[in-house]
Every structure is written in C-alpha cells, then in structure tokens.
Design brief:
Largest sheet: 2 strands, antiparallel
Strand order of the largest sheet: 1-2
Length: 121
C-alpha cells in the first residue's frame, strides 16, 4: 500500500535534520542571551533528541531511530511506535516516520492476507 502522501512532499526546509528522525514537529528555536548589561546576542536552541531502539509489534523487530522527548511521550501515550506512526499526521512524522509507516502498513497487510488464507482453508 502506498503512503497517504508522497514521502518527499513532507519536507520543510528550516530544520532538515528533523526529517531524519521522529521529532514530532520540534525544530530549532532562536532567541537572545540577555546578561545583566542587557547587551543581547543571538543564540539558538536545539530540540532534546535521543537515539532509541523501539520495538515494533508489527515488524517483530527493533527500529533504531532518533526521537525527540516530545515524540517519546506521544509514542508512550499511543501505546507503541506502530500506533504512533499510523495515527500521527504526516507533517509531524517527516521522512523517517513515513518510511516506518510504510513498513508497518505493508507488514500488517501481509499478516492480514496470511490470516484470511488461514481461516478460509
């Protein structure tokens, strides 16, 4: 089965690194360092990214992925990475999330076909 939108149509350029993991919409933020003298200097904040191995029930294997702590909380809320990639909007998933979504959907379809063949015979 094909994804709901093309994999490369999701790209938003300001923080391309977020396309390479499950960042759940988190991007680089900008602001000022403001000391006592009030002399402002520009700085940036990166999202809190962790490298994790998450077990996929559909794939029956671990998926190694860079994931933001916001995405980890949402994955825990949804009950696993499979439900997270299937229920989350494509704009929040990025390339990596869409790749995992396609793998999970294909595996679920194969399992469903195998189950239907088994019950019909």
């Amino acid at each position: 089965m094909f994804p709901s939108i093309p994999l490369f149509a999701v790209v938003s350029a300001p923080f391309k690194r977020s396309q390479l993991g499950l960042f759940h919409g988190k991007t680089k933020q900008y602001g000022n360092n403001v000391p006592f003298s009030k002399h402002k200097t520009r700085r940036s904040w990166l999202p809190n990214i962790q490298s994790k191995r998450l077990f996929s029930d559909a794939l029956q294997d671990f998926v190694k992925v860079k994931v933001s702590t916001r995405a980890l909380k949402t994955i825990k809320k949804y009950g696993g990475i499979d439900q997270y990639v299937l229920k989350t909007k494509p704009e929040l998933l990025g390339w990596e999330g869409m790749r995992i979504r396609v793998m999970v959907r294909e595996k679920q379809e194969v399992n469903a076909q195998a189950a239907s063949v088994e019950t019909s015979s």
